[in-house]
Amino acid sequence: MTISAALNSALSGLTAASRATGVATDNIANALTPGYARRSLEVTGNTVGGAGVRIVGVTRQADPVLIANRRGADAAQGYSDTLSAFHNRLSQLVGGVDDPRSVPNLIAEFESSLIAAASNPAAQIRLDAAATAASDLAQALNAASDGLRDARNDADRSIGQQVGRLNTVLQNIETLNGRIQSVKLSGGDTASLLDQRQTLIDEANTMVPVNVVARDHGSVALFTDGGAILLDGPAAQLSFTATTQTMPHMTVDNGLLSGLELNGTPLRISGSGSAIRGGTLAAAFEIRDSLAVEAQKDLDMVARDLVERFEAPTLDPTIAPTDPGLFTDNGARFSAASQIGLAGRLELNAIVDPKQGGQSWRLRDGLGALVPGAPGNATQINAFHEALTIARTPPDTRFGTGAMSASGVGAALLSRVEQSQSLAAERLAFASASQTEMQRLELEQGVDTDAELQMLMQLEQAFAANARVIETVGDMMDTLLRL
Predict the structure, then answer these.
(1) What is the pLDDT of residue 448?
(2) What is the pLDDT of residues 207-261, one digit of tens each?
(3) For the chain, does the N or the C end have fewer beta carbons within 10 angstroms?
(4) Coil, helix or strand for 315?
């Protein structure tokens, strides 16, 4: 090897060692940076001149299959977490077995208060207690219905926020696609831009699971699992109109709630053919359009059962067939055509409610009684108690086809809510475990700080060796010049 060849080899070695040191330190500094992928310096033999090394470039180490699997786990976890939060909220609204203010326990409390009043019908305090128990039961169903409406409002608001953010993210990814193409065609390093784009894709994927397809010169296209094109060249534009206040009767089908559009075309947002299935956006739509609606129907079924029990013919001979019973629909007699939202409108009949200026003695003497009757007559109270405890077949089969007492209907509601909550918690636990495992696998392919530190030690030795070669070549040149 000639002196010049040795010098060139050493100089190229110093350059490569210096560049590799920068890459290693960048890896260590960004070991915990979200979206950062480990870099490695690619070198090859110098074919021009035949000596030393040549830097090919910096390679971003990322496994697309592993990233895709991790994104699937992220979306599933976000979807399950959103649904689990709703079911927990619903459970709190209905109340649990140990909650004295739960709907089933308040039904039992009302039943007990009627028994106590029947045992001493002359005691005003017991009649007042029965009226209060009935009012508390109606108010508990009102509060649960209001809470469900708030949950639908929150879901509708969340949809609007997510759609707005998703549009912004897609536009940013489109911009990065253009920059990556430009930099790559000019021979520049696109690793940082790729990190930034990966973070944005991860964010979009949490809302709507996406499939990433590579395009020319480093750009990508994004498709949902349902086949919708979110980005392929230009970014798609999603549109949604948030509703100020949702009501139980409002749905997408009757046009009172907004659906989702992609570039002006309506998207299917429910069922197995949904274009956005999975992710937090689909979960918000499911809560607004399905879960909260079904929960409202459950509450309305309990309210209807209570109303119809006390509107039964001959139950109270003091009222006309068209008069409301003990429980009313906003003060009026119930109509089966207006069952939707009944739980939110349920009221104790004002004529027996002391809080509304009524008289609780009418529980003893009849709702239509004009004056108090015999104080020791418990006939009407016993009739009300029997109406509450008699087994009857509900008009809706959502709680089963068998005959049930009012307490049985309340227990069926509680069982339905707790079962749904348990299933949602189980799915969340599975999704969280899967996400954790996929993140662990991805991190294993990420930056290993121990390995990077070992690399720095090796680079230090290589740098010193090349520097020594240059120093030796310098000494040799000085010796030759002195000859």
Answers:
(1) 76
(2) 999 999 999 989 999 999 888 999 999 999 999 999 989 999 999 999 999 999 9
(3) C
(4) coil
Cα dihedral angle (127, 129, 135, 140), rounded to 10 degrees?
A: -150
Mean pLDDT value across residues 353-365: 94
Q: What is the pLDDT of residue 47?
A: 66
- CA 442 to CA 163: how far, in whole Å? 28
| Angle at the Cα of 454 from the Cα atoms of 450 and 458, rounded to 5 degrees | 165
Please say whether the beta carbons of 343 and 357 come within 8 A.
no
Tokens 């749904």 belong to which residue?
Answer: 420
Residue (of 112, 102, 103, 104) closest to 384 by Cα position? 112
- What's the CA angle centered on 98, arms 248 and 90, to 5 degrees? 20
Residues 463-472 have pLDDT tens digits of 888 888 888 8
pLDDT in tens, 369-393: 999 999 999 999 999 999 999 999 8
Q: Give DSSP secondary structure letters for 270-288.
A: SSTT-TT-SHHHHHHHHII
Q: How far apart are alpha carbons 205 and 482 in whole angstroms?
A: 71
Taking CA 173 as the corner, what is the angle to CA 167 and CA 176, rounded to the nearest 5 degrees? 145
Question: Six-digit token pair at 76?
Answer: 């599933």
- Any idea what the Cα angle at residue 305 is, between residues 299 and 308, rounded to 5°? 135
pLDDT over 70 at 265, yes or no: yes
pLDDT over threshold 80, residue 331: yes
Mean pLDDT throughout 78-102? Answer: 95
In three state form, how does the secondary structure of 209-254 look? CEEEEECHHHCEEEEECCCCEEECCCECCEECCCCCCCCCCCCCCC
Cα 89 from Cα 421, distance rounded (Å): 9
Transcribe 19-51 into DSSP letters: HHHHHHHHHHHTTT-TT---EEEEEEE-TTTSS
Q: Are 331 and 325 in contact (CB under 8 A)?
A: no
HSE-up of 385 (CA within 13 Å, CB side)? 19
Q: Cα(227)–Cα(33) distance, rounded to whole angstroms?
A: 32
Helix or strand (DSSP H, E) at 57:
strand 53-60
Mean pLDDT taken over the chain: 91
Length of the chain counted residue by residue: 483
Q: What is the pLDDT of residue 1?
A: 60
For 235, the 3-state DSSP assignment is: strand
Q: What share of the chain is helix, strand, coil (3-state, %, to 5)?
A: 60, 10, 30
| Whether the Cβ atoms of residue 454 and residue 437 lie closer than 8 Å to each other | no
270 φ/ψ angles, rounded to the nearest 5 degrees: -140, 160
Q: Find tokens 């109303």 and name the residue.
A: 307
